[in-house]
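I am writing to request your help with a piece of structural work I have in hand. Thank you for your consideration; the sequence and its tokens are set out here:
=====
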Amino acid sequence: MERDHPNAVVLHCFDPLGREVVARLGQWKGHIEGRHPEVDEHFDSVQRAIERPEQITIDAINSNRENYYCRGALPAPYDRLFLKICVAYRPGNSLETYQTGEVITAYPTKRIGRGEAPRWP
């Protein structure tokens, strides 16, 4: 796949639960870069937040989405905030036992979202 194709993977890592997480170019350029420029080009911060979050929660609205929170992942002036990464999970095989996550959005926030149920730790 070409590096400039919308489905090209721009970030690939594993969360603390051993699940694979990817970010695709189309979503990164079309949503994250456009709506959250403070996160643009901070692939390393997003990866760190997924690999070593302070907390993972189940989204209050979409049960197939989980949110990763990591304080201090972004440089100043956002370093006192959480970096929130929203990841959508879907079955990764025909047995629906292995899940792959795709980054939906990433942005700084002051607090963990209301109504989000703890998932990890």
Summary: The CA atoms of residues 59 and 116 lie 5 Å apart. The radius of gyration is 14 Å. The mean pLDDT is 93. Residues 9-112 form one domain.
